[in-house]
Amino acid sequence: MNSTGCVSGRETILSAKWSHNWSNSLRQIDLDRFGILPLIPRKALHSERMRPGSVGIKRKHGGFMRNCVYVFAVWLVLAGTGCGVRSANVSAEADKPVASQTAKKREDTVVIPVQAELPRRGDISSHFETTTRVDAENRVQVVAEGVGECVKVLAQEGDRVKAGQILAELDKTEALAMIGQTEVHVRQSKTALDIAEKSLAEGIGAKAERDNAQFAHEQALATLNMQKVNLDRLTIKAPISGIITRKNIQEGQVVATGVPVFSIVDPASFMLVIAPPEKELARLQVGQIAKVKVDALGEEEFEATVRRINPGVDPLTGTVKVTLDFDPGTREKLREAAFCRVRLVMETHANALLVPKDAVVEENARKYLFIVEPAQEESESEAADKPAENPAAPPAETAEDSLSDATDEASDRVYVATRVEVQTGLEDANSVEILSGANDNSLIVTLGQHTLKSGSHVRMTNATDEILSKAGLSAEEALKIAKEKRANEEPSAAPASKKRLR
Predict the structure, then answer these.
(1) Alpha-carbon torsion angle 148, 150, 156, 157, nearest 10
(2) CATH topology (fold) of 145-262
């Protein structure tokens, strides 16, 4: 047998093994059903191996080629089946309506209730706030000028007195006795002086005797005058007109010289003294207005003006002494040393853009506002459904109308709260001036802002209790509570059935 015959025999044996294995696996495959027949060579189709229903090996040559054809056919079948499954899945996802996807997205979005309002225009002022006590420029301490026992008190605390009015009297018995004795000495010295002058005139007396008698008389008169003054000092009198604010004397008390017995203030001289820091000196000027509240008089607010500014700075405290004055009607209501709260107006801005002070959120030394805007997906859907604008249509709604509509439709419309950094100016107890970052038409979140993040979905409402219950929570806690509430209010939708491609 030649070499060619040996090779052909070996190929025939190998082909028989391969064809037998593959013929058993592909026996049930209908090549025409899968559209593979057009891909098989025409010559191979006329072979007995490729005829439908043929099994086994009829020919010795061409078996290896037939096996390659079978492998290629199986690969095409498997690849086509996989692509069909993937194409079916992609087509199914693409066929889902856009509206249903948007509805599902809204259903999964957590909406936080908030309260919003428009900024307002108004005047705002900056203040220097401090505390002080009512003081009086005319205040005196009445002290005893004599020594003795108090025998009569004629004035009490709170009494209005006039200058020179008797307040109390001390025992004058001893003083009066001394005055009587001195008056006797005065008369004796007067008699001695008269005799000396007569003797000198007759030439029988010396001039020196007359002079000594005159000096003795004058000394007696001086002693009498001094004793009368001491007697008058035993009567305590009011040095100024005013109100007695303190009494430290009572009947039977022995009083010494220099002991304070009464305190009198003049209500017409009531004023306030404050001490702003020296850095405020450039903004201080006479005539500035200050608002004053006196704790003893409740919540009533009084007005005072700057009357005097001390040009010097206290080197120990670094402050400036400023005197505030009241009008006469206000002075009558004040009380000495009453505790006061003073707000001195330093600067005023007119027609400023104002927002509530609580609406401003501070973080890392920066200030932010949450501005409410329509949700993007809702705006797009409304724009798509909106008909062409009519030139004769009424003008667009104002910001106030938008806020009113948003509040009325709070349960249906969803908004987005955007955090915006703002620059602030003057501020008072309730409002803050906005210099940049917001305008007159910005809807500012004024309640519930501390539970928000930039981009949070919100629903505007007037349910204050609902917001306050979440105002003290963190954003995560508020979102969790809102999600649980939504789950309780709305029935959960049944999960959609999934179809498997068989």
Answers:
(1) 40
(2) OB fold (Dihydrolipoamide Acetyltransferase, E2P) (2.40.50)
Q: What percent of the chain clears pLDDT 90, i.e. is strictly above it?
A: 48
Q: Domain residues of the chain, as ranges?
A: 3-94, 104-120+352-385+398-489, 145-262, 266-337
Global pTM exceeds 0.70:
no
> Is pLDDT at 160 greater than 80 in this prediction?
yes
Contact 230, 203 (CB under 8 A): no
CB 300 within 8 A of CB 293: yes
pLDDT reading at 177 higher than 50: yes
Both tokens assigned to 153 = 């008190």
Q: Is 217 helix (H, G, I), strand (E, B) or coil?
A: helix
- Count of positions (residues) in the chain: 502
CATH architecture of 266-337: Beta Barrel (2.40)
**Shared fold status for 145-262 and 266-337:** no
Confidence (pLDDT) at 210? 87
- Rounded CA-CA distance 246/288 in Å is 34
* pLDDT, average across residues 50-76: 53
Residue 67 in tokens: 């096996």
In the CATH hierarchy, which fold is given to the domain comprising 104-120+352-385+398-489? 2.40.420
